[in-house]
Automatic annotation (TrEMBL):
Alphabetical UniProt keywords: FAD, Flavoprotein, Monooxygenase, NADP, Oxidoreductase
Described function: Catalyzes a Baeyer-Villiger oxidation reaction, i.e. the insertion of an oxygen atom into a carbon-carbon bond adjacent to a carbonyl, which converts ketones to esters or lactones using NADPH and/or NADH as an electron donor. Thus, can convert bicyclo[3.2.0]hept-2-en-6-one into the oxidative lactone products 2-oxabicyclo[3.3.0]oct-6-en-3-one and 3-oxabicyclo[3.3.0]oct-6-en-2-one. Is also able to catalyze the sulfoxidation of methyl phenyl sulfide (thioanisole).
PANTHER family per UniProt: FAD_NAD(P)-BINDING DOMAIN-CONTAINING PROTEIN-RELATED, L-ORNITHINE N(5)-MONOOXYGENASE-RELATED
Pfam families xrefs: FMO-like (PF00743)
Family classification: Belongs to the FAD-binding monooxygenase family.
UniProt cross-references to InterPro entries, sorted A to Z: FAD-bind_Monooxygenase_sf, FAD/NAD-bd_sf, Flavin_mOase-like
GO molecular function: flavin adenine dinucleotide binding; N,N-dimethylaniline monooxygenase activity; NADP binding
Protein's UniProt name: Baeyer-Villiger monooxygenase
Species the sequence originates in: Streptomyces echinoruber
Entry annotated with the keyword NADP: yes
Co-factor requirement: FAD
Family annotation (Gene3D superfamilies): FAD/NAD(P)-binding domain (3.50.50.60)
Amino acid sequence: MGEQHGKVRHEHVRVAVIGSGFGGLGAAVRLRREGITDFVVLERAGSVGGTWRDNSYPGCACDVPSHLYSFSFAPNPEWPRTFSGQRHIRAYLEHVTDVFGIRPHLRFHHEVTRMAWDAAGLRWEIETTAGSLTADVVVSATGPLSDPKIPDIPGLSSFPGKVFHSARWDHDYDLTGKRVAMVGTGASAIQIVPSIAPKAGRLTLFQRTPPWVLPRVDRAITPAERALHRALPVTAKLRRAVLWGIREVQVQAFTKHPDELGLVERLAKRHLARAVKDPALRARLTPDYRIGCKRILLSSDYYPALTRPNVDVVAGGLAEVRGSTLVAADGTEAEADAIIFGTGFHVTDLPIAERVVGADGRTLAEHWKDGMRALRGASAAGFPNWMTIIGPNTGLGNSSMILMIESQLNYLADYLRHLDALGGRVALDARPAAVDAWNRRVQERMRRTVWNTGGCTSWYLDASGRNTTIWPGTTTEFRRATRHVDLAEYEILRAPAPHTADRVEVGA
């Protein structure tokens, strides 16, 4: 830091990346591969990993096969299991950080508190908990599964016991012999329940909506397989390609022909019937919506855990807390020493959106008050030189998000090449008409998908019931859509003078 002409001079970088999960680290690697080294990665925590650092609950693992849930440019022949656990995925991200030389760019304990567009200087002014800086381009990679959501339960503040979210697991609190309440039945809960049921004195599961669950076909990857992948990397690529291809074919049932999911539904019911013999419990665990409407969960030990004598399933969400007594929506009461919330994250109301101030002085949250929307899932109108990774309608319901991240990194790289080719101090701002047209096409395709027609309420939908989360197509289609930046979809901003910015119309 220093002073120049009476003003504080802050660090300036070409690119500031926010977050160091898969999206942020992927962006950092891509920047270096593009020859760009003038960038920083701003991370609020003290290490890399994103959601795979924050989620360390018992049983935490990925429901996407290991060889598909990794970067194509950083294959890992040493995956120990077909579905990897949190510890190994986090170690993989640390490995990527080291191999690709990202550590010098990391700024730990730099939580972004505000970033605002400087129209005169055509740059972003960024404030963090550890100081300020400016950047020509911002890449927001905070991720949708980063800020836990705990519902507003009457009386919760008066609960005398322990309360925490699955993504903020308290490893110092011993659950042995305790009366534990698990709230929620999503992807985290079905991994937590089998892990803690044997040690809890009593475990009560508050289930608002039962999930569809299929067997988890997980196994150790043999030393021979790992040796083969090390000696012949093409075999690992082939394995990845097969896993990807199967999911590309499957997605048609989710996006165009939901009725074809009936067979999968029958398999899930058979899985439930094999594990749960009690007809009353089985009835409580049987969903009443089309499979795939919510994310299909994978577990071979969830249902058996629910049949344990010390486990109760309450077919109603937690409605009220009266001291140590928990009351469900159906009136059922249970005593608890600890409450664990597996209630998801702020996905359609991203907290980072409240901290990003655009060209008109309004926050991204204000722009998105009627629903998230971004051109090709990356650029928001009125927020020049700002791009998001895993933005609106880029989520997947049946495949690996790493595929979508890499497609967005292609778009980012081409975006930066365009800025270089245009020369001088320049910025690109997504045209509102282009954002609207893209969003219209996405929402039109969304109408017949299982996520919109399956008869459930999921975290894919925002407060108004619109699906602003999922991509209604194949990963191949998205890769084609994000291969290149179309300048006709952007306005070019230039700053020929210190305090002016001209808008140059492209294709006008």
